[in-house]
Amino acid sequence: MTTLAFKPNATTPWTMRMDTVLKAPPHQTGFAAIAAIFLVVVLAALGAFMVTFSNTQQLTSAQDIQGTRAYWAARAGLEWAAVAIPANPALCANPVVAPPSPIDGFSISLRCFQNTYTEGAATVTIHRFDAVASIGSVGTIGFIERSLSASMER
Hints:
Elements: E1 3-4, E2 16-17, H1 18-22, H2 31-87, E3 107-119, E4 122-135, E5 144-153
Antiparallel strand pairs: 1-2, 3-4, 4-5
């Protein structure tokens, strides 16, 4: 049996055995397991939060890009209307026929309002165009819509 002995002096006149020093009292066993379980739960919750945050960031970025594409599709619809309607004013009925095909997957709806004014001896026609580009269906996560308006004097 291995013993750890101290030199006796006035305060410690006894010897101490090694196995009694390393043995924990019975009411303190299992604390490390509880701490380890708590740490695992906290780290799992932190990991789940990071995954959710990353997915949300990815989705927001994708919607931002789709929003930019919708803006440019609506602008292309306005430009189509600005060229087609003055060449054929009969097209300016409410609503106007959409461009020949969807632009980059976005459906385009155009509305045209035509007002004629007399300024002195001149007659001025003002065309107002509203273009809406959309993709997806309302209420879904992939629904994106942008609208633009423009006016043109002829």
